Amino acid sequence: MGSYPPVPPRDAQQGSRGGSGYEPEILPPKPGYAPAPQPARRRRPLWAMSPATVALVGINCLVFLGMNMQQLGLTGPSTRQLVQWGADNAGLVLIYGEWWRIVTAMFVHVGLLHILVNMWCLWNLALLAEPLMGSFGVFAVYLLTGAAGNLLSTCVNWWRYYPDLARYHDIGVFPLGAGASGAVFGIAGALIVLLKSPRLPVPPMELRRLRKSVIYFAAINLVLGFGINVGASVAHAGLGIDNMAHLGGFLSGLLFAVPMVPRLGSPRPIFKARLRNAILLIGGLLVLFSFYLDQLPG
Fold it and tell me: Does residue 125 surpass a pLDDT of 50?
């Protein structure tokens, strides 16, 4: 019988790591070799990240340009143009039934400085609000709180100037109201509530800083508005600040955000349900308030 070489132990057959006995050789990279670069992540354009903010600012600017193209200048529209383009007026709304002015007035501006200030505030606040309440939420809070401000302004102007209407039988005694500032204050009010949420994935210090800045914005501008009106009354100036629109927008913005949770950090079904409840709440209150206004003596 021939002799056979001894059989190696089982662990020697399978290799020291318990594998098949084959261990691949790891070669060093070749000189000059570099891994293929990963494609850079394309940054989304602003209109795609915040479409509601861009759309609202764009609509306001287009309306202002259309008004000024009609008179070929940027000196500011006339009273007649403001009425034609949808400014608010208590007489036109409550006597002639032109309720659509409650909405259109928030897209009409009196002059270049007026729209520049309002659009700067709208741009900054809406960009902050859109991640928290979504694009549809920003549209909803703009329209609902802006309408709330215009309705409150219409109501106060009616009671304030109704004796003059009875004396002169002229709806021109009622002042015109125009501008996005009521809706801007509404967005500020909603932000003050939403930025308090513990669900937001933002450091608490940063949240407090943002919330304080919005509170300061609302408080300072409300005080300035009332102060400017006092000065205008003393100087018998023709223009004034529609503080009732500001106040109505701000209070309705606070109320709008109470049933809501911010979109960031919340399950989508919960956020959508809360947003729907907020819209129904403010919308229902506006309808009831409109019925009250419709019953005013006239």
Answer: yes
What is the residue whose two structure tokens read 């000189």?
31
Phi, psi of 81 (to 5 degrees): -65, -40
User: Do residues 185 and 251 lie in contact, with contact meaning Cβ atoms separated by under 8 Å?
Assistant: no
Two tokens, residue 14 = 């399978």
Q: Are 172 and 213 in contact (CB under 8 A)?
A: no
What single DSSP character describes residue 245? H
How large is the average pLDDT for residues 25-54? 65
Give the number of other CB atoms < 10 A from CB of residue 191: 28
Classify residue 210 by burial, with Cβ atoms within 10 Å: 0-12, 13-18, 19+. middle
**CA-CA distances (angstroms) from residue 110 to 63, 76, 154, 220?**
11, 6, 18, 22
Cβ atoms of 262 and 132 within 8 Å: the answer is: yes
| Inter-residue contact 160 to 174 (CB < 8 Å) | no
142: pLDDT strictly greater than 80: yes
What SS3 class is residue 177? Answer: strand
Amino acid at position 255, single letter:
L
Confidence of residue 37 (pLDDT cuts 50, 70, 90): low
Q: Which residues pair with 177 in a beta bridge?
A: 88
DSSP states of 87-116 as a string?
Answer: -B-HHHHHTS--TTHHHHGGG--SSHHHHH
Q: What percent of the chain has pLDDT over 90?
A: 67
Average pLDDT of the residues in 16-41: 52
CB burial string 253-277: b at 16+ within 10 A, e below: bbbbbebbbbbbebeeeebeebbee
Crossing angle of the two packed helices 243-257 and 204-235, in degrees rounded to 10 = 160
1-15 pLDDT, tens digit each? 444 444 444 444 444
Question: Cβ atoms within 10 A of the Cβ of 146, count?
Answer: 29
